[in-house]
């Protein structure tokens, strides 16, 4: 007969002790684990916002540049490059001679600054947080502005009367009168030193000349009053391009044409006459005119487009 083996509590003691230690370890570990970051036990390092390297750099104007202006409509082009700034709530402040002239909260960080007077200037940009603390500063840029119209005896600038200058230019110029209806004088297009931002915002164009008094030339019978269609035209230029913007207000947009037919619908036509002196008495397009038609489309299945008509006397493209 097999003898019955008796099991005592002491025989289970090692197992009981192990269980108690395990439970105690879990009780201690879990609260500590919840207070630690997820990457603490993985060996990864957490990159905090303060550890990011922010940097800003003034790329325009360049240091020690001299601007020689002939009128007070000309501006100093300002461009700032920024690193790791776009997705923050920081602000870039632009200071000239310690005076804040502009602040940016989003790119592009570009601005046309009108100095108004000759002098030496120092420019710096600062990256600041919502509390006004400076996070980073840019390079310092020194530049000089000189206006052409200055007296030899004094350092003061003679006030430039733009209208007088325009009148002088017109008195020495020959222009086609039919192109000046209804104002009677041509529209002046000023030179710009940094291209306008193409973003649909018109405030930047306010420093350039504009006109709103349009005179219909094609299908005049379809035009009633300015409530039918109206608009505002601005333009400027630099050494490389001609820039313009037209804000059109149309009570009933109507465009169903594309390609070389798009000017049969609502559109804008710009013509560049390369031999204007020879065409003074010609009331129509000639073989030296470049014509560009712009269409807004119909805001549905016809997209915005442009179509250019090259004059027959134009030199071969690419030559």
From TrEMBL:
GO terms under biological process = carbohydrate catabolic process
The GO terms describing molecular function are: carbohydrate binding; hydrolase activity, hydrolyzing O-glycosyl compounds
- Membrane-crossing residue ranges in chain numbering: 12-32
Does Transferase appear among the keywords?
Answer: no
Q: Which residues form the Carbohydrate-binding domain?
A: 198-295
InterPro entries hit by this protein: Carb-bd_dom_fam9 (IPR010502), Ig-like_fold (IPR013783)
Q: Does the keyword Kinase apply?
A: no
State the UniProt keywords alphabetically. Answer: Membrane, Transmembrane, Transmembrane helix
Q: Which Pfam families does this UniProt record tie to the protein?
A: CBM9_1
According to UniProt, the name of this protein is Carbohydrate-binding domain-containing protein
The organism of origin for this protein: marine sediment metagenome
Taxonomy of origin reads: unclassified sequences, metagenomes, ecological metagenomes
